[in-house]
């Protein structure tokens, strides 16, 4: 047995589907210890939107470390934090007419979600939160309570309470008007629905199966929350930082949620970092009421600020992401038409794309076949039925074409079997 099997917990997952030892990474590629290259359409589960070891971000990080810049600072003021906050305001918030204060809740996406839930309950004095079918918000207890996957919820070991699921967009395939059930329960004094403090939603459900909410649906949800005095939490942990094209997945819906959760690619370099954006009037924390040791990871602030300057000072990355997404969409449409008997369904927005198989095993087999051909992809959805693509936003047209060729070949191999 190797050291991984001897010492590492059985809870590991990705290494089971990709049983090699990776050593280096550059741009859109990972390399194993034997030097074989793998085109990465996984990108750290969306934590590497700008690719591996992005040279501009790497140089900023090296320069900062070389001058003995502060590495760990809790919530103390630092030059690195100031630069990040100023750059975030200048390149992201002000150009979009968004006014938020920034909470540094801890290093991961679940930390951002926990802070959002905790603050919503503090502000409103209410306990209940509305979540959606097939949602995924993290693995800590609060985040799990608003997550849909039964296997992940079961790992909590205790009842997960104070959350009520509602149907996500297209859950009933358009058979009912949007929010018919939700609004009926809110307006009926006999429904038994506890008055909610907040609604938490993803613009595109990544782990839930690349379910992209219609922009009109998101707008309708925002309107509903305003009518009923409910806070709207937008979890953009995986789909923010340009994954769908615009910086935020909700921008094109014309809404401004009360609270926004960001992590994964916010650091730009794969370093741990998360932020929770809150409307100024919601900033009712007492000093130290929500804290943690790893809130001030300065190297992540450095790469985050540089990523914003390099990629979000204009709209070139947004346009490129949308164009590449449309190329994937067209390729997937061709695959769906080529195999009508397989009942495939193309899904997604921007560079968050999925191909849903009627048989969940087939999606896994396609990903395994792609791995054999040097391409990394994962599955998502409640039964692993969706082949999921999250390539770096910075991948070249040639790399995208190469990946699509491998996918087409892998699907052909699996379906012909």
Automatic annotation (TrEMBL):
Cofactor requirement: pyridoxal 5'-phosphate
Source taxon at top rank: Bacteria
Metabolic or biological pathway: Amine and polyamine biosynthesis; ectoine biosynthesis; L-ectoine from L-aspartate 4-semialdehyde: step 1/3
Listed EC numbers: 2.6.1.76
Broadest EC class assigned to this enzyme: transferase
Gene3D superfamilies xref list: Aspartate Aminotransferase, domain 1, Type I PLP-dependent aspartate aminotransferase-like (Major domain)
Keywords: Aminotransferase, Antibiotic biosynthesis, Pyridoxal phosphate, Transferase
Pfam families: Aminotran_3 (PF00202)
Classification via InterPro entries: Aminotrans_3, Aminotrans_3_PPA_site, Dat, Ectoine_EctB, PyrdxlP-dep_Trfase, PyrdxlP-dep_Trfase_major, PyrdxlP-dep_Trfase_small
Cited PROSITE patterns: AA_TRANSFER_CLASS_3 (PS00600)
NCBIfam families: dat, ectoine_ectB, PRK09264.1
UniProt family annotation: Belongs to the class-III pyridoxal-phosphate-dependent aminotransferase family.
Protein name in the entry: Diaminobutyrate--2-oxoglutarate transaminase
The organism of origin for this protein: Amycolatopsis minnesotensis
Gene: ectB
